[in-house]
Every structure is written in C-alpha cells, then in structure tokens.
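ok here's ITA10 protein:
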Amino acid sequence: GAAVPWLRSSAGRLGMTLVDSKDGGFVACAPLWSQECGTSAFSSGRCVQLDQELQPVGTMAPTAQRCPTYMDIVLVLDGSNSIYPWEEVQAFLGNILARFFIGPGQTQVGVLQYGEHLVQEWALGQHPTAQSLLEAARNLTRQEGRETRTAMAIREACTESFSPARGGRPGA
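and the structure:
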C-alpha cells in the first residue's frame, strides 16, 4: 500500500508494528527509529498514537535517553586592550566551538565578553546550530577598554548566564 506522508521520518518509516488502540485509533511503532547524539545513534524505537481519522495525537519513545552531550557552556572571554591580536582570539574561539555537538537536546554555548564592561554576546541556545555559532564567532568584535574585570565577569557568568532567562536548561 501507499505510505502515509506523516509516517515517514528522516530515520526511517513508522508502521513496522500496527496495533488497535482502545479509543478506536491505532498505535504505529518503528522499533528501529534512531536518536542522534553527537556522532552516535541510539536505535531506541518510537511509537505514534493515531486517532480514528489516522491523524497523529501523540508520540512515545519509551527508551529515549538524554544525550551525553547535553551541556550548557558559557565562555567568559577577555576582550580588553590587553588581548592582541583579536584575530587569534576569533580563530581560537572557532576552533573550540567546532568541537562541540551543537543542537537542541545537545550542547548550547553562550559567550560573555568583558573588559571595562560586561556584554552577553549571545545567550545559551541563541545559536542553535554549529554553523550559526561559528558564524557568530567569526563576526565577534572586541569590547576593548583599559580595565580587565575578570572577577566581575566570572561572577556574572556563574549567577546570571546559566539562568533560564538566558537559555539555561535544568539538568544540563
């Protein structure tokens, strides 16, 4: 028979198992549905509950797990005049960011830059893809300033940068 469009996913097709539901609908399961975590894929299975008109009303992934790369990272970056040349800082930042598995349910990165003033360059989750994050790092400009307020920046990162208002996630 023809496949129903919403039964297809990037990881395969649902419908490997089809069971009547008590409410008159069905439950379609794909035991080989995969969950990506960085460079690993966990084949944990997924089911979709369908109503009588075969419209999805909910999903279940009984063995889905949180990726081991589920982290919130805030980089505290010295942008004062004591740091030179800035291009090397941008290259270093890009090199570090390229090593993280960036994405929803995985790693998200924020940057707090300081000199005389503190500036939250971007909050956690503001750049949800590696490409977006690397582009932001390439375009990051230096704050400058004659003072280097390192302790103030670290305190701000610890007290504010991981807050839910700035994109921090419980359990990360």
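+1. Residues 1-15 have pLDDT under 50 and may be disordered.
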